[in-house]
Structure formats: C-alpha cells, structure tokens
Amino acid sequence: MNVWQQRFDLWSKYSALALGFSIPLSTALMSIFSILTAVLVMAGGNYHFKWSLVKRNPLVLASITLFALLVIGSFYSVGTWHESLRELKKYHQLLLVAFMLPVFVEEKWRKWGMVVFIFAMTVNLIAAPIRHFLLHVPGDAGFHDHIIISILMAFSAFVVLHMGLESRGARRWLLIGLFLLMSIYELFYNTGRTGYFVYAALVLLTFFQVLHWKGLLLAVLLVVMGMVGLYHFSPVFHQKIAQAVTNTEQYHHYTNKAQASEKNVSKIYTSAGLRLRWIHYGKVVWLANPVLGVGTGGFQAATEALFPNDNKKLYTDNSNTDILTIAAQLGTLGLMMLLLIYYFNVRISLQLSVPYRQFAQLLVVTMFIAGLFNSVFRDTVESNFYMYMVALFFSQYGARQSSAPSSEERGAGSC
What we know:
Structural class: mainly alpha
Radius of gyration: 22 Å
Strand content: under 5%
Oligomer: single chain
Helix content: over 70%
Mean pLDDT: 86
Number of helices: 19
Shape: globular
C-alpha cells in the first residue's frame, strides 16, 4: 500500500469506532459513519486480502446473497419501483458488512470496537433517567426508541457480564456492577417488551455457555421464577405484560381472519393488536405466493389486494417480523437464505476464540428473538448494529484462513 492508502486504512478504523459509538446514540451520525467507513475501506487498498476475508466467510456471503435476492425481487415486485427501491435501502446493511469486515482484523481494533459501543450504551443508561426525571423529556429510552434500546441494552448487559467473568480483581466487580445496572434498567425501567424476551433468552444462553447442559434446567427455573417475581414487583413489567394480554384479547374479540372494519379497528389499533394483524398479513401473503413471494417492496400492495375490506389504518409495508417479511417478499427461497444466515452465525461462532465465541452467540440469539417481534434486519439502527457486530466478531474467522496483515494478528489466537 502507498502512503495515502495506509492513511485511508487507518482512518477507516477510526471511522468504524465512531460508528460503534454512534449506533446507540445518533441515527444521523450512525448513517454518516457507516457510509464513510465503507468509502475509506475501499480507498485503503489491499484489495486481495480484503476480498479473501469476504469469500472465506460464508456468513458474509449469505448476507450478500440475500441482498442479491432482494435486488432480483425488485424486478417482479407487485409494488411500485419507489416501494422496491425504498425496501432495498432498508436492507443495504447486508451489503455493507463486507466492507466493515477488514476493519476489525487486528485484535486491538476489535477490543476498542467493543469498548466504544459499551461506553455508548453506558451513556444511554445514565442519560435515560436524567432525560426523563430531570429534563422531563417524554419516554424512557434515552437517545432511541424504547424498543431499540431494550434490544441493545439486553445484548450489552450480557456482553458486559461475560467481560466481567473473564476479568480479575476490581475490573471484574466493576463490570458485574455495570451488568446489574443494565439489568435493573431493562427489567424495572424499560418499557420495551421485546427486550424482556431477548433478556430471558440471553439468560438461558449464558447459563448454557458457562455451565453447559447442566445449567440449562437451572436457567429455565430462574427465568420462570424471575418472570413471576417481576410481574409482582416491577410495576413497569407488570403493566406492559398485562397490557399485552388485554390487547391480544381485544384483537381476537374484535376482529376475524377476513377483515377489520371501521367499527372495531380502534379496539385492535394497539401495539400487540397491530403486530398480530401484520403477522397474519405476512402469513397469508407468503402462503399465497410461497415460491418467489410478491417481490421486494410488494408487501403492502399484496396486503391491500388480499384484504380489500380491512381498514386502511392497518395496512403496512412489512409484517413486523423478519421471517414473514422476507418470506412474503422473496418466498421460501428468501426464507431459506435468512435461516442460512442464522445457521452460519451459530456454526462459525463455534470456531471463534473466547470471548468472541460467546459474543457472537449472544448476537444471533438477540437478532433471532428480536426478529420474532420486529423486522430488525430492515430497521435502521438494529441492522447497523448487526452489521457492526458481525464485522467485529467474525473478522477473526476469515483472518485465520488468509494472509494476516501484521504479526500482531498472527499472535492473537486467543483473546
């Protein structure tokens, strides 16, 4: 590499760290730094090595393939070209992960990448109650929507816990204390129900990671007891769960599988009610077009055609769940590719060194559980979060099989 390429390469790493810091804090800065990092990586040269990282990583190749299927799907979409292009933009992070991968090949950049993200989440942890109680800003989530922060906070809490378990002395207790604070925020202050499910799943995973199969039964008992306890002693948790139950009962009482009229739409126009209706839309659209789907960006047009009597307030451009959103647009082929991404997340994680093995497994469980209730692969913050973390954790995999760029990386076999 010449002098300028070396500078661009270095700047791409600093830009990636700025991206990691901005993901929990600012959507605008996050978007700027994600594009800037990709541009700097391209300007940094050493293309043979960077391409070798991509082609040797089946997870990244599967992500690129899913994006390619979305591009193909735009040509037969039942929606407009505007809707197709808007949907492609939603999923472009699947492509950007290939550009992010070379940034974190060296161990020191991986460590800093995790540190800046956790620091930003700590800022959120401190800022949320200050904004709510002192500045009287509505909401409970700090710098993003409560659903987004609930997902990121659950993930961050267990990353911090693993970091604490791997540490010694005062640093261990400081990290475990931070884990407890993040857990208190998640379970007693946060109002994002998705975060509750992600947190419970990560409890099960962490017990399995630390104690293996013998810890799984204990984890199940603790999760059940913990949920019962929270329902009685956490007013926020109690309210959100009770509200979900009431909304679900209203949905089933005031609507049927055929339509949702003006008379009862107000009864199902709730958080849980809308999700149930959109999931139903996704299932029907997919089953009506099981092979190739309705094309990229065609979800709303297909929904309106299949449910002409539904109130217009209920129509949306996705099913609010990753599996059905992809299946409805790309059919079973697209669904299989999405499941392949989950599979490669798990398979490759088993080949990573500690603690990235544990972190990668936390990531895939977080994305899968959150994706059952939200379309996280197409949502701006969550998709950038996934792209960043995949590059951070899985860059180690490709670097082991390629010519390493420095002696430092060759010596970083265990973390």
